[in-house]
Design a protein that fits this description.
The chain is α/β, with parallel strands linked by helices. The chain has 2 domains: 105 residues, Rossmann fold, CATH 3.40.50.12160; 259 residues, pyruvate-formate lyase- activating enzyme (Alpha-Beta Horseshoe). The protein is built from 13 helices and 13 strands. The strands form 4 sheets. The protein has a 5-stranded parallel sheet, sandwiched between helices. It has a 3-stranded parallel sheet with strand order 6-9-10, sandwiched between helices. A 3-stranded parallel sheet has the order 11-12-13, with helices on one face. Helix 11 runs parallel beside helix 13. The two termini are 41 Å apart. The structure holds iron/sulfur cluster (SF4). The site of iron/sulfur cluster has 9 residues, from helix 4. This is tRNA-2-methylthio-N(6)-dimethylallyladenosine synthase.
Length: 384
């Protein structure tokens, strides 16, 4: 029987996609191997959120190619997928000539067969792509425009999970709050893709213009209510939420629905309104402060985590100190602090020079990481 091996880099969405790639292989009669040296086909599911993530994938592929060369053996078929596909076929084959095939990540269908290792907890993707245009982010270019998965498909998967004995699920999306609210707008993406022409900050659309306003109960809240009807489902988590469209009715639903996990991941990215504007995040720190106040008021046992980028172009010492003071005030349970890494093709890469020296980014990272994660050494994440 032919063997497959999947190397996954990056976030929960990639982990969930790899489960679906595995499902496709096993549906075609392959079996999984834990050793890539024994594989007939190797899939590398890549992350492009920072340069180091891309370097890790390239490093892995060069190790594979070197190994088979030194062994004088025919190398297995290598398939690349994930967020590095934003580079485009030509550039990828040039960067990594050992690749045989490129699989655009959004071709890994929501409804394909799934191979799950965990028998209690399951990842359930509810949307792919993103309609927002945070200037530093590669996701809209690598995963495309936001597509919400139909409610009936999600509920059918939950039904199947219940039959298989699952009791915990995590709903996955780049911005789960906007599930079912994305607007069309391919044109916009093309505008962002036209790299040859100068781009001005004013041309970048506000996130709110990319989504419909919910009429009545937001679709995401309705989805949580539907899933909660299953007695067998004891815990429902979701990731990732965006602060600008975290609806009051979602807060009420969490407050009154004990199945919904009390940990809420709410990336702020910066505590400076000037930097938030340059990032095109679509909210201010005052908006974020008010959201957290409402969450803590309505859900006393809520636990909040966040993401922050330090060293964003133009971030002055004053801006950084605003973020430090805001972090002390917000008292997050944990925070993924990352040093800004310019991603080719993104708006910030086109608009802003990467002015903050690496040494200074690291100093800011250490200060903020210590403030937020002093009690969470285990989550000391990204050091570029
Ligand atoms: S909301 Fe912003 S940071 Fe998150 S995936 Fe979309 S563009 Fe990227």
């Amino acid at each position: 029987m032919k063997k497959y091996y999947i190397q996954t880099f990056g976030c929960q969405s990639n982990k969930s996609d790899s489960e679906r790639v595995a499902g496709d292989y096993e549906a075609r009669g392959f079996i999984e191997t834990k050793n890539w040296q024994d594989a007939d086909e190797i899939v590398v599911n890549t992350c492009a959120i920072r340069q180091t993530a891309e370097d890790r994938a390239r490093g892995f592929l060069y190790n594979v190619a070197t190994y088979f060369q030194q062994q004088g053996k025919q190398k297995p078929k290598i398939i690349l997928t994930g967020c590095m596909t934003h580079h485009g076929q030509e550039k990828l084959y040039e960067m990594m000539p050992m690749i045989d095939e490129i699989l655009p990540i959004n071709e890994v269908g929501f409804n394909s067969a799934v191979v799950r290792k965990d028998k209690k907890h399951a990842w359930v993707p509810i949307s792919a792509g993103c309609n927002s245009f945070c200037t530093y982010c590669i996701v809209p270019y690598s995963r495309g425009r936001e597509q919400s998965r139909p409610m009936e498909d999600i509920l059918a998967e939950v039904e199947k999970l219940v039959k298989e004995g699952y009791s915990e699920i995590t709903l996955l999306g780049q911005n789960v709050n906007s599930w079912g609210l994305e607007k069309e707008g391919i044109g916009l993406r093309k505008l962002m893709m036209r790299q040859e022409r100068e781009l001005s900050r004013e041309e970048i659309p506000d996130n709110a213009t990319q989504y419909e306003q919910p009429k009545g109960i937001p679709p995401f809240v309705q989805l949580l209510q539907e899933i909660s009807k299953h007695d067998e489902i004891k815990v429902i988590r979701f990731i990732t939420s965006n602060p600008w469209d975290f609806h009051d009715l979602l807060i009420d639903e969490i407050a009154t629905n004990p199945k919904i996990d009390r940990f809420i991941h709410l990336p702020i990215q910066s505590g400076s309104n000037k930097v938030l504007y340059d990032m095109n995040r679509g909210y201010t720190k005052e908006h974020y402060r008010e959201l957290v106040r409402k969450l803590r008021e309505k859900i006393p046992d809520v636990v909040i985590g966040t993401d922050i980028i330090v060293g964003f172009p133009g971030e002055t010492e004053e801006d950084f100190n605003e973020t430090v003071e805001f972090a002390k005030e917000m008292n997050w349970k944990l925070g993924f602090v990352a040093q800004y890494s310019p991603r080719p093709g993104t708006a910030s890469w086109r608009l802003y020079k990467d002015t903050i020296p690496q040494k200074e980014k690291k100093r800011r990272w250490e200060i903020l990481d210590k403030i937020i994660n002093k009690d969470n050494l285990s989550v000391r994440p990204h050091v570029v």
